[in-house]
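Q: What structure does this chain adopt?
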Amino acid sequence: MQLTDIKTAYFLGIGGIGMSALARYMHSKGILVSGYDKTKTPLTELLEQEGIPIHYEPNPSSISSAIDVVVYTPAVPSDFAEWEAIEKLKIQTVKRSAMLSIVVNSLPLIAVAGTHGKTTVSAMIAHCFEYIHQPFLGFVGGVLGKYNTNVFVHRNAKWAVAEADEYDRSFLALRPFISVINAIDADHLDIYGSATALQDSFSEFAAQTSPQGQLLVCSDIDRSKLTLPQNHILFGIDTSEGYSANNVRIENGKFVFDISLNDSKLFNSLPIPIAGRHNVRNAVAAFAALHLAGFDPKQIAEALQTYPGVKRRLELIAKSKNIVYFDDYAHHPTEIEALLETIRSLYPEKTITGIFQPHLFSRTRDFGVDFARVLSKFDIPIVSDIYPAREKAIAGIDAQWLLNQIDNEQKQYIAFENIGKIDVANMNGVLLTIGAGDIDNHIETLKNRILSL
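A:
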């Protein structure tokens, strides 16, 4: 299938971050785009404002023979009410990953993979392309604050950058010129079944990097778990091989570091506007990818210093006399631990309250011990109801099950609908809302209440 063959496209699950980016891209190309999603969100409302019709209840009568292609996400269940009408009309169906590959594989592609950090790294690269005025196509797994979008479309694009999602092995549809593997921690075990199967999939992704290009691999990864091609190079913190951030420190509230390649200095004292050692590592990955693409180190460094951040990635929401409130998308134990370490480094004397909405019953079950271990480190850990996403409930796995494993006398449960009503008037320190579900629906309420104190 070619994009030029498509006049009308229908998206099942259009509110997903990757789906919405593709929908926006096709809409920008003059294709008539519409879609379904089960939940109205600020992102779907934005799509509607941009002229893309969306409905929120299954409506088989909305499916017509005028639709050239249905783009779908694997999160849409097989018994979804509109599938029968789609099959009856013999409309061509294409997975999101396959449609993304049609768009980006024709250009030199920088594909960013990893169980953590891929959204931030791909967003940093997209921002740098914008700053450098390099025409490109960009598909990012989050909304960049300054641009208020997750897709970038330039005429005469010379590069593409895309987040390479390991869920459902979607990233295997991509053919990168430069690729990044940021982390391979066990995740999506509902799909892969085992950590080994997940690692094998990353090895397949690595093998798809062009022999003329380069694969960047985080030095923290146990490379014995992967099969890597010859054209790979490392990146990380305080590593003597590959791209490295050295002399990492905090100056005036910002993380600052030097960057080198094989012990040869490329840039001194690079401050980045987002906090955390994990974000230093993310910045090194973005710097390395752009340097390998041929861009000047000074130009890249200047661009990274102006990185605007992604919504829901350590996003500062509100600050009052007594409370500093951040929101973060973290939904894996490793991500929550990195988040907590970052906040502790910035606010070592403050009480840290974390409200966590677990994402998926299966992930909560599979990593319950690790979630409990990390959440126990908060001064006040609060657990809310599990966001089911694509899943049905699993007997015995709920917020109370997780809460019971947390070793902290200050632990609490809060019903999801009551998150916005939490007692901020008597709170002191740092407040975090954490999770990949719909906990962000409470952000505005909490923000307004904190700012009114």
